[in-house]
Write a structure and sequence with these properties.
The complex is a heterodimer of chains A (about 250) and B (about 260).
Chain A (H helix, E strand, L loop, with lengths): L3 E12 L2 E12 L3 E5 L6 H8 L7 E6 L2 E3 L3 H5 L2 E5 L10 H11 L5 H11 L15 H13 L5 E5 L7 H18 L2 E5 L3 H7 L2 E6 L2 E6 L1 H8 L4 H17 L1
Parallel strand pairs in A: 3-8, 3-9, 6-7, 7-8
Antiparallel strand pairs in A: 1-2, 1-4, 4-5, 9-10
Helix pairs in contact in A: 3-4
Chain B lengths: L2 H12 L6 H7 L1 H20 L4 H33 L3 H5 L5 H31 L10 H26 L4 H11 L14 H7 L3 H13 L6 H32 L1 H4 L3
Helix pairs in contact in B: 1-6, 3-4, 3-6, 4-6, 4-7, 4-8, 4-10, 7-8, 7-10, 7-11, 10-11
Classes of the chains: A alpha/beta (about 250), B mainly alpha (about 260).
Chain lengths: ~250, ~260
């Protein structure tokens, strides 16, 4: 049986009057693809930020690859990576310059060779000399993927990675990610507002709402539990229940 | 501590200078025009006073030394702002770099810029006004180091402020050094300040450094008391700046400023 690579227990984050994440507990096994879903403000990005040590939890415990976050932050971060549509590589630098900087940040031996190999694999070898600002969203997303695979991560955090892509580019991205997940036995924590996308690719989902887990399990099990046809219906029902509460 | 990660930050901030004329102007045009402006002032004062060429040398030396402090401070705080502008902060801080390594990277960036700018200004002074600002010899070394140390302290303090207030603190990052300049006795002696103000400004390292610089230009030996005061105060301000920055960084991780700062 696969080991747990992420264990989160009673994770809580309080910002002044706002309880952003409320006693959240979950775990992820090696090689698992978990979709972390929920409406805006549900606590998805806050949870990922705490898992990556960008944000300190108010209470609760985070264990990643058997180590404690934030205590073992540097050791953990050398074995995981992250990509997001909202975090960009400096647009004034060339693709190769950005990747060289990150190869050094992760202390990759033979960094230049590694960049070349990954660039060829992800189809950006011809873009290496171009500046980031000249790339399309799809090309920039591929560059971000190369950056994310530079350190051969055991866990990959992907925060709405396809949100700025057209359907074809998003599909290509998903194919690449799924192929890599199988090839490397990679663990992936994926947030997205595209419910169809998550239904297609996630082994399991966690649905967050107002900082709490309201549903978790395989997509099929969650839909059966809440008697919904698909995740989009579930998402809309949840968001509308929130709106009703807000107007009541 | 990893030299490779520190070098990664240095490269991240040096790469933009390659083949980029507007960036290169920071290293060439700014020092050139500052030298030109202060040089013309110096020529005017030299002709209008009894000081002769000495005043020109003092002013040109002062502006070169001021640039050391100013560029070191900017090298730290404005480089961090560049990370915010390019929305790259999370990429940096989800890598295994420590905050100390990141800060050291920025310090090295500032130092390299200062080396280039100082050489440029020295060359311009020689070329335009036939003044060798390095003619005071090795005495310039301890004074320059004292300026570098205070530049690190100031840059680190401003970095802490930018961490807390994000891009809204941009103007402070640019102007922090200029807020100090009127009280730094860069171009004139401390004796011209009102007595009460003199008592206050002696608690800043800059007036000690520039008083010492003027004394050396005037042919006197390096005033050791001013040098010791400058280094003592540098040590205090550096320690205070690092403590302040450490506190702000922890606060940023607690309040989520690392995520919000780039918005």
């Amino acid at each position: 049986m696969a080991e747990n690579v992420i264990v989160v227990k009673n994770l809580t984050k309080q910002f002044k009057d706002t309880l952003a994440v409320d006693e959240v507990s979950f775990s992820l096994k090696r090689g698992e693809f978990l979709g972390l879903l929920g409406p805006n403000g549900a606590g998805k990005t806050t949870t990922i930020a705490m898992l990556l040590g960008l944000l300190k939890q108010t209470s609760g415990a985070i264990t990643v690859l058997g180590m404690q976050m934030p205590k073992d932050r540097q050791k953990i971060l050398s074995r995981v990576n992250f990509s997001s549509a909202y975090v960009q590589l400096p647009y004034g630098l060339s693709v190769i310059a950005n990747l060289k900087v990150h190869a050094r940040l992760y202390q990759i031996p033979n960094g230049d060779q590694k960049i070349q190999e990954l660039a060829e694999y992800f189809g950006i070898a011809d873009l290496l000399k171009r500046r980031m600002m000249t790339l399309s969203s799809g090309q920039a997303t591929r560059v971000n993927l190369v950056k994310a695979f530079l350190n051969d991560p055991e866990i990959l955090f992907l925060d709405e990675p396809t949100s700025s892509l057209d359907p074809e580019a998003a599909d290509t991205f998903r194919q690449l990610i799924l192929a890599e997940q199988k090839r490397r036995k990679l663990t992936i924590l994926y947030t997205s507002h595209n419910m169809q996308e998550v239904e297609k690719i996630a082994d399991r989902i966690i649905f967050l709402h107002q900082g709490k887990i309201v549903a978790q399990g395989t997509t099929k099990a969650v839909l059966a539990q809440f008697k919904k046809k698909n995740l989009e219906d579930f998402f809309i029902a949840l968001a509308r229940s929130e709106n009703k509460k807000g107007t009541a | 501590m990893s030299i490779i990660r520190i070098w990664a930050i240095v490269l991240r901030h040096l790469y933009p200078y390659r083949f980029n004329l507007s960036r290169m102007s920071e290293l060439i045009l700014w020092p050139f025009f500052e030298m030109l402006l202060i040089g013309f002032f110096g020529v005017f004062f030299a002709r209008a006073s009894n000081f002769g060429g000495l005043i020109l040398a003092i002013l040109l030396g002062a502006i070169l030394m001021w640039q050391i402090f100013f560029r070191i401070q900017q090298g730290i705080s404005v480089s961090f702002l560049m990370e915010l502008w390019s929305r790259n902060l999370a990429n940096i801080f989800i890598s295994p770099i420590s905050m100390v390594e990141y800060l050291l990277g920025l310090i090295v960036v500032g130092f390299l810029k200062v080396v280039v700018i100082s050489l440029m200004m020295w060359g311009f002074a020689e070329l335009l006004y036939h003044v060798n600002v390095l003619s005071i010899g090795v005495a310039i070394v301890p004074l320059a180091i004292a300026l570098v140390l205070f530049g690190w302290a100031m840059g680190t303090f401003v970095l802490g402020v930018v961490l807390r207030y994000g891009q809204s603190a941009e103007s402070i990052a640019w102007a922090a050094s200029f807020f100090l300049q009127p009280f730094a006795a860069v171009f004139y002696p401390v004796s011209i300040y009102p007595p009460l103000l003199q008592k206050i400004i002696w608690w800043i390292p800059l007036p000690h450094i520039f008083e010492a610089l003027r004394a050396v230009f005037a042919g006197q030996p390096l005033p050791i008391n001013h040098v010791l005061w400058a280094y003592g105060l540098d040590a205090v301000y550096l320690a205070a700046a690092f403590v302040f920055f450490g506190y702000m960084f922890e606060k940023a991780r607690d309040k989520g400023y690392l995520l919000k700062a780039q918005d």
